[in-house]
Request: fold
Amino acid sequence: MLLNGLVVASYGKRYGVELEDGTELSCVTRGKKTDLACGDKVKVRLTGPGEGVVEQLEPRSSLLYRSNSFRSKMLAANVTQAVIVLATQPSFYEELLNRCLVACEAAGVKALIVLNKCDLDNANEAMLRLQDYAALGYNIQPLSARDNVAPLKPWLRGETSVLVGQSGMGKSTIVNALLPGKMVRTQEVSTVLDSGKHTTTAAHLYHLDAESKLIDSPGLQEFGLHHLNAEQLELAFVEFRPYLGKCRFNNCRHLKEPDCAIQAAVDAGDILPRRFACYQQLRQEIP
Ligand SMILES: Nc1nc2c(ncn2[C@@H]2O[C@H](COP(=O)(O)OP(=O)(O)OP(=O)(O)O)[C@@H](O)[C@H]2O)c(=O)[nH]1
Ligand SMILES: [Zn+2]
Reply:
């Protein structure tokens, strides 16, 4: 008999799968397949007490992943929104923010930018840096998760959100504040220590309420986008869209080609040079 399940934890080769009655099974996949992500809907077969095997994967409404030339890593499936966590200190890498935004656009997932640690005194300066992203249409929520996580809650209602961000930005603090009493990350460290593994490979899905889910993913240091093709990449820069198809060459890469409409928009001040530079760097990573 096959049971409906939701992947709520991913530890490399093992998955935590929650059944409809709320119980959680420790599951493996058939053969060498390890292509499941937190948020995946699956069908499982019980193999023993608390154990099962994943037999089927349901179609996904979205899949967020990152990749370099060697491998790709799925971050979360069936999410409606990514919450990109930045902080006033340590200062965030704008390139990583852009890579996250591009991944969201390519996956058809909304992006919310959270600027955490706004209690620190360089908050205004950091908010100013983000105004350019507000102008592009992205929502930005200032936060001081250590003091009060309430301003984040309305954004999460009714959504399946994945938290992404560099280490040290405050993701654990946010998750713990949203799920008081669970001490989520701390608990994870101790269970994983037993197996001698690092915590950083595990992602977890939590129910905030009946309609809202939150997936906590390990801290990112890099965000490769090797899985995108040239067309997906240019479309993922939202401000490029009005100019696409207007270059002299219809296969223009917007790198050094003459009569490039994107370059012209940069020169006219309609596209930010920082975003254009980021595009060019990503474009060079694509064959
Ligand atoms: N001032 C201030 N510090 C905060 C805030 N939120 C988190 N911190 C601190 O920032 C540091 C990093 O926070 P974490 O929540 O561990 O960061 P993280 O993003 O989960 O990091 P990883 O676990 O490495 O992914 C800790 O010392 C927190 O106490 C905040 O709103 N204000
Ligand atoms: Zn061009």
Q: What stands out?
A: Residues 223 and 282 are 11 Å apart (CA to CA). The chain is about 25% helix and 30% strand. The helical segments are 94-107, 123-135, 153-156, 171-178, 184-194, 230-236, 261-267, 273-284.
